[in-house]
Specification:
The protein is an alpha/beta fold. It folds into 2 domains: 76 residues, 2,3-Dihydroxybiphenyl 1,2-Dioxygenase, domain 1; 97 residues, Signal recognition particle alu RNA binding heterodimer, srp9/1 (2-Layer Sandwich), CATH 3.30.720. Helix content is 27%, strand content 27%. The protein has 4 helices and 8 strands, in the order H-E-H-E-E-E-E-H-E-E-E-H. The strands form 2 sheets. The chain has a 4-stranded mixed beta sheet with strand order 1-4-3-2. Strand 6 and strand 7 form a beta hairpin. The longest helix is centred in the last third of the chain and has 20 residues. It starts with a helix and ends in a 20-residue tail after the last helix. Bound molecules: fe (ii) ion. Fe (ii) ion binds next to loops.
C-alpha cells in the first residue's frame, strides 16, 4: 500500500524537511563508536575538535562526532576533554518516556538481526509490537534509549486513519476520555492493551 495523495500533499507543505542529526553527550567516545559503528553499522563520518564553548564563548575542548544513517542524517555525540566535562542532568539509563530516539530499519528481519547482535554483545533489550510499527529498544553506552523500528504491512493504513482523527483524539483525551484507540498494539507478553 502506498501513501495517499492527501498524505503526499500534506507533506509537500511541511517546511521542516527531514531529520538532520540528533546529539547526545558521552563520557566514552570509543565505547560510543563501537556501539554505533561496529554494532549498528552507522559509519563515523566526522570528528570535529573544538576549542571554544559555543554557549559560554569561553575556552573549552571537546570533540563532536557524527555517525551516518542511510538517508544522510546522523547521530552526533559530544565528549569533553577530562576536567572540562560539564556534568549532565542525565545519570544512568534514560527512561523511554523521558526521551528516546527511534531509527527506522528496513524489515522485521532487520529488527531481529539486531536482537541477535545485542544478545551476543550483552546489551539488554526489549521487543514491542506497537501495531503501527515493530520495535526493539536498547540503551547505548551513554544511557540513551534507542529504538530500532520497522514499518509493518498495516503501518500506512493505521497512520492514515489516525491522521484524520489526531486533533479530535487529542481533544477527547485532554477532556478526560481515556480509552485506548490503538487496537493493534501488542505488549511484550503478546497481549493486547485493549
Ligand atoms: Fe518510539
Amino acid at each position: 500500500m502506498n501513501v495517499s495523495q492527501a498524505t503526499l500533499d500534506r507533506r509537500s507543505r511541511i517546511r521542516v524537511r527531514q531529520f538532520h542529526h540528533h546529539a547526545f553527550r558521552t563520557r566514552d567516545m570509543e565505547a560510543t563508536r563501537h556501539f554505533w559503528e561496529d554494532i549498528l553499522e552507522c559509519p563515523l563520518v566526522g570528528t570535529f575538535v573544538e576549542t571554544t564553548d559555543p554557549v559560554t564563548e569561553g575556552p573549552s575542548n571537546y570533540i563532536h562526532t557524527f555517525f551516518e544513517m542511510a538517508d544522510g542524517s546522523a547521530l552526533a555525540f559530544f565528549q569533553f576533554q577530562e576536567g572540562l566535562y560539564k556534568e549532565s542532568e542525565i545519570h544512568g539509563n534514560v527512561d523511554p518516556f523521558d526521551h528516546h530516539i527511534a531509527l527506522e530499519v528496513e524489515s522485521k528481519d532487520a529488527v531481529m538481526a539486531y536482537k541477535d547482535r545485542f544478545e551476543s554483545e550483552g546489551y539488554p533489550h526489549m521487543l514491542i509490537d506497537h501495531g503501527y510499527c515493530y520495535s526493539i529498544y536498547v540503551h547505548d553506552p551513554n544511557g540513551m534509549q534507542v529504538e530500532l523500528t520497522t514499518k509493518v504491512p498495516e503501518t500506512i493504513e493505521i497512520m492514515e486513519r489516525h491522521a484524520k482523527t489526531a486533533h479530535e483524539d487529542l481533544k477527547r483525551w485532554l477532556a478526560g476520555v481515556t480509552e485506548a484507540n490503538n487496537e493493534r498494539r501488542r505488549l511484550r507478553s503478546g497481549e493486547s492493551v485493549n
